[in-house]
Amino acid sequence: MHDPRERPDVVVSALTNLGHGVTEALLRLGFATRFFIMVLLWSGQSFRRLHLTIREIYFSGFQSLLIIMVSGLFIGMVLGMQGYETLQRYGSAEALGVLVALSLVRELGPVVAALLFASRAGSSITAEIGLMKATEQLTAMDMMAVNPIARVVAPRFWGGVISMPLLAALFSATGVLGGYLIGVVFIGVDEGAFWSQMQASVDFRYDVWSGIVKSFVFGIAVSLIAVFEGYDAVPTAEGVSGSIKGTVVKSALAILALDFVLTSFMFREA
Fold this sequence. Notes:
By secondary structure, the chain is mainly α. It is 86% helix and 0% strand.
């Protein structure tokens, strides 16, 4: 039989571990907030060296085009097939363009593009900065009076922030094209009804603008997580690997949580 006196020790140990975990999380959150402020303060130097930011836009944005556009095309085709089967039951197959456009512009475009961006570009940014820390390149910059946040972190942060809305827009555009190919070309929905109902139903303020705002916020969140995880990585192979995993997981959770919050505010009066 267990000694009843052991139970208080177990409870105290559990509470101690919980308190330690909460304290570490708050300390890390505070450090991340301070890091974000430092990135903003040193962003002026990175913009004065505009070629650094343009290079990161090419790396984060242009090199992600293939996976973004191919994924958008196939998701639009799936929406076209599934939407047609559902709308046909109610005699509203001509509204297929509205369904595809609203689904992509409001929700799927920003969210799925951000998830793909975090998996492809975010993990690469974390790996690059983490390896620079592990090989003491960041320390060497600091010793040479070169601020690593201005030289390394800020250009990568702003490259991701600028690229994300553009990638989300291209994702939605190719998705609409995929829905058109399936609905109009293959199934035979009336082309005029497809485009005219889409143009009449998609509102710029509540639909297009909300997608732009979402993608911009997602870009800030993913880029900040990526550069912070790389900068804060333990300078070992295992530490960098853990930071890459943390970037993907935390970015996905942040995207989904922010999507819920933004949607609840944006469409309250829609």
